[in-house]
Write a structure and sequence with these properties.
Elements lengths: L1 H34 L6 H23 L14 H36 L11 H4 L1 H21 L15 H7 L2
Helix pairs in contact: 1-2, 2-5, 3-5
Length: about 180
C-alpha cells in the first residue's frame, strides 16, 4: 500500500512538473516574441521544477529498473553467481546513495540556516535544494525494495534486461 502511494506520488510530481514547466516556458516565449514582455522568474522556476522532476524521476527509474546496466559478462555466470553479483552491485548503489543522501541533508540544513532567498522567486533557497534529499530518499527506498526482491528470488538483477526474457529458452535450443 505504501509503495503504491509512493509510486502514485512520484508519477504525479514527474507529470505535473513537466506540464507546468512546459506551460511556463511556452507562455514566456509567446509573451516575449508577440508582446515584447515576459516573466523574469520563469527560467528559475523551470530550473527548480526540472531538478525535482529529474531527481524524483531517477528514483522512479530505480523502481522500474530502467537505469543502464551493462551485464554482458554477468550473463555468462550461473544464477547463484548472478544473484551474488546483483547483491554486490546493489550494495555499492546503497552505499553511494546513502553517503550522498547524508551529505545532501547536511547541505540542505545549512542552506536553511543561512536563510537565503532565491533570486527571482524570492522563496527560501532550501526548498529547491530539498529535491536532492527527497529524491535520494526515494531512491534508497526503491533500492531496498529491489534488494528484498533479489533476496526472495523474484528478480536477479537491479535493472531490467531488454531482449533477454527468453535467453534461457534460446540457450536450451542450441545445446
Amino acid at each position: 500500500m505504501l509503495m503504491r502511494a509512493v509510486d502514485l506520488m512520484e508519477k504525479w510530481i514527474i507529470t505535473t512538473g513537466f506540464v507546468v514547466a512546459t506551460l511556463l516556458l511556452f507562455t514566456n516565449v509567446v509573451l516575449r516574441y508577440l508582446f515584447d514582455t515576459g516573466f523574469t522568474w520563469v527560467l528559475e522556476a523551470v530550473q527548480y521544477l526540472f531538478a525535482w522532476v529529474v531527481l524524483i524521476g531517477a528514483a522512479h527509474g530505480v523502481k522500474e529498473g530502467v537505469h543502464l546496466g551493462i551485464d554482458i559478462l554477468v550473463e555468462r555466470f550461473s544464477k547463484p553467481v548472478r544473484r551474488r553479483l546483483a547483491l554486490l552491485a546493489l550494495s555499492a548503489c546503497l552505499a553511494f546513495v546513502s553517503i550522498v543522501l547524508w551529505l545532501s541533508i547536511d547541505y540542505t540544513l545549512r542552506i536553511r540556516e543561512w536563510g537565503d532567498l532565491s533570486l527571482d522567486l524570492q522563496i527560501p533557497q532550501w526548498i529547491p535544494y530539498l529535491a536532492i534529499p527527497v529524491g535520494l530518499s526515494l531512491m534508497l527506498l526503491h533500492f531496498l525494495n529491489v534488494g528484498m526482491q533479489i533476496l526472495r528470488g523474484e528478480i536477479s538483477s537491479i535493472h531490467k534486461r531488454e531482449g533477454t526474457e527468453h535467453l534461457e529458452d534460446i540457450e536450451e535450443i542450441y545445446k
